[in-house]
Design brief:
By secondary structure, this protein is α/β, with parallel strands linked by helices. It has two domains: 2-175, L-asparaginase, N-terminal domain (Rossmann fold, 3-Layer(aba) Sandwich), CATH 3.40.50.1170; 195-311, 3-Layer(aba) Sandwich (Rossmann fold). The chain has helices spanning 16-21, 47-61, 78-88, 111-122, 207-214, 232-243, 269-274, 285-297, 303-311, and strands at 2-4, 9-11, 69-72, 95-98, 132-136, 139-142, 147-148, 157-158, 166-168, 173-175, 195-199, 219-224, 248-252, 278-279. Strands 3-4-5-6-9-10 form a six-stranded mixed β-sheet, with helices on both faces. The chain is globular and about 60 Å long. It starts with a strand and ends with a helix.
Amino acid sequence: MKIDPVKKAPVPAISGEDLLATVPDISKYATVEVENLSNVPSDYMDAERWVGLQKAVKTALARPEVSGVVVSHGTDTLEETAYFLDLTVRSEKPIVLIGAQRNASEHDFDGPRNLLNAVRICVSPEAKNMGAMICLNNQINASRNVTKMHTSSVETFNSGDFGFIGYADSDRVIFYRYPLRRQHIALATDSLPYVEIIAMYGGATGSLVKAAADQGAKGIVIQALGWGNVNIPMFEAIKYAIGKGVPVVISTRVPSGRVLPVYGFAGGGKTLKDAGAIFADDLPPQKARILLMLALQAGVKDAQALQKFFDL
């Protein structure tokens, strides 16, 4: 992004070549090729763009001379794209996603540092088999755990209870732990199923859950409360959707911890589980949606079989 002189606000502006030109020292570490797939706000990312990006990443990684791939991306949906690539690309070579919290018109634009670190990670032998990672502010996070936590700080990406997996320090790249909870789901189609996310809140009516089920959603993710609880209207709507054959996954709006079928009141987690709902473990709604989309496109529809994907 750069400040547009007419709109007087940041808009997509610089190309991959422009970004590369801001880091002349990058040639000390690697030869970098640029492929401009799109130049849009990350708010515009969708399943079609994810599939296109996945194909480009796979093609690049298949070349023997390529050590890894860097994806420059807006931060708003960066964690979703990272998780999608981690699930769908099988390679020992690293995929490093970067963004910038400060636009390129600002004097302390953080994009160049993040790009340099990403290239350093790609050529690090320790980065093999780490999957897709996000690196901003020198911190390396695993795609499954990482979430954007601050609207403007350069230290915005955080992995909650688990912490980052490594650090791009000034002298070398260091990894401290391995991301254990990884799985691969092959892309069987270029068209991913429609899955909706619907929030639970005090006074929710459940009408949006019923509407999604009636309007062709192939799956629904509920951003529930606490351990995975909803009120009675939402409970009834969830049972309605499940009755129509629509898988419903229960996540939570709480930033840390797993959802579990604990409470026995109508709408409590145990009653949702008994009704046939699937529990997202510790995945936030936006990532639970991606996993559900990929499982559905792989032909899995049974609730018990879908639950296994979330338990891995």
